[in-house]
Amino acid sequence: QVQLVESGGGLVQAGGSLRLSCAASGIIVSLSVMNWYRQAPGKQRELVATLTTGGSTNYADSVKGRFTISSDNAKNTVYLQMNSLKSEDTAVYYCNAQFPPIRAWGQGTQVTVSS
Question: What is the helix (H) or strand (E) element at residue 62, kind and residue range?
Answer without folding.
Answer: none
